[in-house]
Amino acid sequence: MARQATFATFMKSERARLDKARKNALAKRTTLEKDIQTIERELTALDAYRKAKGVTGKRAPKRAVRRATGRRGEKRQAVLNFIVQNPQGLSRGELLVKMGVKGNKSAEQSVSNALSALKKAAKVNSRAGKYVPA
Questions:
Q1: CATH class as words, domain 69-133
Q2: Taking the domains of the chain in order of start, what are their residue ranges?
């Protein structure tokens, strides 16, 4: 009978040990998943920054990185194209992300200016915080 009590005690203590180990592993997994999400957000931000700056994989000479300004109305047309492609509407923030300029203050301002001009020209309307084709 002592042997059964010893085995039952062993099983109980082993179960407790495994439950504790599982709980610790799940806590670590949660922490790791949060870390991975943070890293993914930072990588996305870096990609958006590189895209906004026009940086390619290799470092280009300083003169090659500078881009000439576009023709007048080019930004407006690009904004209008994105809005037309999304007839359900896009908020300013969604538009910035889709255009890859989120985080680039001057590019964000250009998009805002283009939206204002398009609205004034009656090419887009705003409904419930979203810009839709007119």
A1: mainly alpha
A2: 1-67, 69-133
